[in-house]
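Example record for the data management plan.
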Amino acid sequence: MATATARNVDDKDYAILSEIAEAHGNSISEELRLLIAEYAAKRRTEKMVAATRKLRDRVGLTLPKGTTSLDLLREDRDS
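Corresponding structural encoding:
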């Protein structure tokens, strides 16, 4: 695993992070790892959504007006 070091963290920010970590029963290092993982997961999701939209726009797939993906799933299930 990689190691990251944060220098020159504002004392007020560090104090808040410390409070949050304590409230969650975590060390500051563990809280930082969780925050980094959460942020990274959000970025991966944003990239996936953007790629999906790009593919949709490139392929030009659209649903008939008034139809949702749920309607298509139900139709497929019932057939």
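Summary line stored alongside the record: Residues 48 and 54 are 10 Å apart (CA to CA).
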